[in-house]
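Handout, section B. The chain below has 66 residues.
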Amino acid sequence: MSSLSKIGAVIQSVRKENGLTQEQLADLAGISERTLRSMESGQGNPSFSAVVSTASVLGIKIVVEK
């Protein structure tokens, strides 16, 4: 599983735990619903700022390791 797929799975899981629709989360994160859908499915190439913004809204910490 790729890193983007892992991040997407966590975002989707936490979004659902918080009772948010994709439309609601996208609005809160300031991104398009299409971007969120592709992020959650591990497809496409979302910008780093889109991933960080979405994670921030959900209270998810992103750690980059070497």
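Note. The first helix runs from residue 3 to 17. Compare this with the example in section A.
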